[in-house]
Amino acid sequence: GNSVTQMEGPVTLSEEAFLTINCTYTATGYPSLFWYVQYPGEGLQLLLKATKADDKGSNKGFEATYRKETTSFHLEKGSVQVSDSAVYFCALYSGGYQKVTFGTGTKLQVIP
Amino acid sequence: GAGVSQSPSNKVTEKGKDVELRCDPISGHTALYWYRQSLGQGLEFLIYFQGNSAPDKSGLPSDRFSAERTGGSVSTLTIQRTQQEDSAVYLCASSLRGTGDETQYFGPGTRLLVL
Fold first, then answer.
1. What confidence score (pLDDT) does residue A13 get?
2. Chain B closest CA to A61's CA: distance in Å?
3. How far apart are alpha carbons B115 and B105 in whole angstroms?
């Protein structure tokens, strides 16, 4: 079956530090890949996505590149802000009647 | 347009009582999911509806949990004989299938507290 593995948190960074949150997956076919974000006290929302190999999703300064050869979709940001503190979820969808599969989430805390 | 709505936003109940949680998906969305999120934990998949297909119930933790989706729209998650370990935030999400976009849109959740 499909699965998503994320690096364990919490991740604590100082403001303006470089962020990487690792995400690897196992799936049949050619899945679409997603990053969702949940800010404190808020609902989950899509951050970015990529639907085919070598695509790069980007939003709010975050980027992730769909790497089929390494089955990865790592989330990166060059300079994090306190307002980026949230829980980040990696997810995949492999098509048809398959359900979306989420990773366990990674909590990011950015300190001033 | 309107997003996914859930009701009630908060529910406090006594152990052993039944509760019903409601989800109104975005109009036209064919896929609907229920998840549970305990404090500080990740998303726990519960059940998934897609169009007229049989729902995927593989995530329901016990037979006290059930869900239905009427008319391909509104969904109700029912928890019978609630236990304290059922306390969590219950999230609903919907998505539009068939367009190649499987982006999920989440509701604000129902916070359930079982005393």
1. 97
2. 20
3. 30
